[in-house]
Amino acid sequence: MNKKVMTYQYASEVIGQSKKAKEENNDCFVRAISTATGSTYDSAHSFVKSNFNRKDKKGTMVEFNLQPNLKSHTVDGITFELSKVAKPSITNTYKLYGELVHRQKTVKSFIKDNQRGTYIVLVSKHAFTVKDGVLIDNIGMEFKPTRKVTGAIKVAVDSPVDTQLSLF
């Protein structure tokens, strides 16, 4: 299966209905946590408020120094780990006039290089989810593939293991 780069899904379709979401502004990081982990908007809102010091109706300043206490969490019974993506993974290297130049990847380039896994991608004053190569973002943001990636957080969701012992 050859999936084209920049497959898009609206965050509101993934999150569903939430009274709190309708009352909020500047909540892209809350939506990113919700869509990346599969948790409800309300639970993601509480998580971001308590762990990232988010104020209601204000944006979230995401610190890249994810302290050990921020690495593993459980929200809505879903356990996940957050880890900062290393700088080489969010930059492209070019040779220009014999010198190596490092430039921030575009959203499209980041998605092309990360077709597997779940990431919260940060661009200037905005955050969204990339899940298995699909960009999950707000309505109206789908036509901005050239935004520069300023950071990314890998989200590893622990799925319960349903193993069955088989003798034959």
Written description of the protein model:
With 168 residues, this protein is α+β, with helices and mostly antiparallel strands. It has one domain. The chain contains 5 helices and 9 strands. The strands form 2 sheets. Strands 1-8-7-6-9-3-2 form a 7-stranded mixed beta sheet. Strands 4-5 form a two-stranded antiparallel sheet. β7 and β8 form a beta hairpin. The longest helix has 11 residues. The radius of gyration is 17 Å and the shape is globular. The two termini are 33 Å apart. The mean pLDDT is 83.
Helix-strand layout with pairing:
Elements: E1 7-10, H1 11-15, H2 19-23, H3 28-37, H4 41-51, E2 72-75, E3 78-84, E4 91-96, E5 99-104, H5 107-113, E6 118-123, E7 126-131, E8 134-137, E9 149-158
Parallel strand pairs: 1-8
Antiparallel strand pairs: 2-3, 3-9, 4-5, 6-7, 6-9, 7-8
Helix pairs in contact: 3-4
